[in-house]
TrEMBL record:
It holds the Pfam family FCD. Transmembrane segments: none annotated. Residues 19-86 form the HTH gntR-type domain. PROSITE patterns: HTH_GNTR. The keyword Transcription regulation applies. Keywords: DNA-binding, Transcription, Transcription regulation. GO terms for molecular function: DNA binding; DNA-binding transcription factor activity. The keyword Ribosomal protein does not apply. Signal peptide: none annotated. It comes from Peribacillus frigoritolerans. This is GntR family transcriptional regulator. SUPFAM superfamilies: GntR ligand-binding domain-like, Winged helix' DNA-binding domain.
Length: 158
């Protein structure tokens, strides 16, 4: 891995300290791909990533497998795991579609919501909007996860 990759990972690790390690690794690497830190064809090794996260290879392997399932990584014979040729514009379009579907789900979930649940959702929404306004991608992701936890609770799945 190049020096700027190490620096990015080191800077991002602390934002995910409350998450399970495999999720933290997944999100940091996914964001690095989206932000253009990792480029198509860049090689990733379990050992390098484990060293950066100061962990065993098991959570790294799980995170890489999930990234592969999302077509962000691919296995190249004789080379190992490399960043896929990702169409960032297509990825952003997919995220927009997902947001539309989630908005519909949220509207359905909020039918008949109680006042105290509504206050929690408003708080989570404000936190998410603040992260977006500050252009803080990591805080945005964390706030988004928290918001969805509240939605699941409202739906009775939390």
């Amino acid at each position: 891995m190049e020096t700027n990759h190490y620096q990015y990972i080191t800077e991002q690790i602390e934002h995910y300290s409350s998450k399970p390690l495999r999720e933290a690794i997944f999100f940091v690497i996914k964001n690095a791909i989206i932000e253009g830190i990792f480029l198509p064809g860049d090689r990733l090794t379990e050992d390098d990533i484990a060293q950066q996260f100061n962990c065993s290879r098991t959570p790294v392997r799980e995170a890489l497998r999930k990234l592969e399932q999302e077509n962000l990584l691919q296995v190249k014979p004789g080379i190992g795991m490399v960043i896929s040729n990702v169409d960032i514009e297509l990825l952003h379009q997919e995220l927009e579609i997902r947001k539309m579907l989630e908005n519909h789900s949220i509207q359905k979930a909020c039918e008949g919501i109680r006042d105290e649940e509504l206050k929690k959702l408003e708080w989570a929404t404000d936190k998410l909007q603040q992260a977006i306004n500050n252009n803080d991608r990591i805080a945005e992701i964390c706030a988004n996860i928290e918001f969805h936890r509240y939605i699941r609770t409202v739906q009775g799945h939390g």
